[in-house]
Amino acid sequence: MAQRNSSRRGKTNSENFMDYSLLFIVLFLLGFGLIMVYSTSSYEANLEFGDSAYYLKKQLFATILGLIAMMIVANVPYHFWERFAVIGYMVAVVLILLIIPFGHESHGAKRWLYIGPISLQPAEVAKLCMILFLSSLICTMGKQIRNRKGFLTVLLVPMPIALMLWQITNNLSSAIIVVGIAVLMLFVSCPDYKRFILLGLAGAAAAALVVFVIVQMAASHPAVEESDVGFRGERILAWLDPEAYASGKGFQTIQALYAIGSGGVLGKGLGASMQKLGFLPEAQNDMIFSIICEELGLFGGFAVIIMFIMLIWRFMVIANNAPDLFGALLVVGVLGHIAIQVILNIAVVTNTIPNTGISLPFISYGGSSVMFLLIEIGLVLSVARGIRLKDLY
Q1: Which of 63, 156, 302, 351 is 20 to 30 Å from 16 at the Cα level?
Q2: Which of 146, 173, 191 lies at the terminal end of a domain, its last residue?
Q3: What does the DSSP 8-state code read for residue 359?
Q4: Domain limits for position 326
């Protein structure tokens, strides 16, 4: 009997690990996101389409497809996808280039491809493919990434895709995320932190120089127009002084801040937002966090932030216990993608940084975004399944 119990304990300790905490957090964010998409978009959807649930139905369809894809990917050994790393990089490049002749323009930006009734945003494909390609590349290079040539190679690999996203799709935020993913994956792989300090200082100095030049241009030409400083230059000026651009680039920011301020600590109540009634443009997309704060108050806003912190913590646990470097890098890449996107979205909504037009993961309206995020979660769950329970003790 003792031998049988010992054998049973040994078998239990070698079982695969399934992170139900991660799964619960993701499902919670998805469910909460669907509720907020409906609450935020119902008024506009009823006016434009005569169906208050129009955006909810489209988001629900994309979520269901994403969950199916997530379950499939989670049950496939993650090393299976390594053989498609180079192909994925090429597919990302081709899809972005297809935007030029076949892209669909919406709200002044040409970022979508239509495949039958389904719209696809190549930027979301590029983020996933970049995580896969960089994970494979870093594992292949091994210790070579510690020297200057290897370090620069990994750092420069995502630049072509980042530049294409910026110039072809006019999507600077996605370009920043792609580069940020590469930097974070390189950071956890390379022990020479001095390089990253210098890289960070150089990036901060460059950003400060750009802001300084634009401010000086505006000061020397008081009647500055968008043609003088550029589209993004005017966004920077609106970030520094939203009220001066209240009828232009600062309008959305001001309305978002009104929403956050009017919500108070406990909010006006679910569905009781005033800013979503035509005052705040794209409320269900980039600015959904401001509606969360208006309806659920700072309490609701902090609750959402805490859920994302818990999600990132679960990623860290899985990455630390991953069976190999490739699995750990996959998880770190997904962590970087979601963490950077959450930070940028909340920073934009609170006017901490200039408006870059970026969605809140799992919560903002956007079919391509939620589908590919769930595929990334599937990769993380696949890595988690490779962990043996005995390795966690």
Answers
A1: 63
A2: 191
A3: P
A4: 30-75+244-393
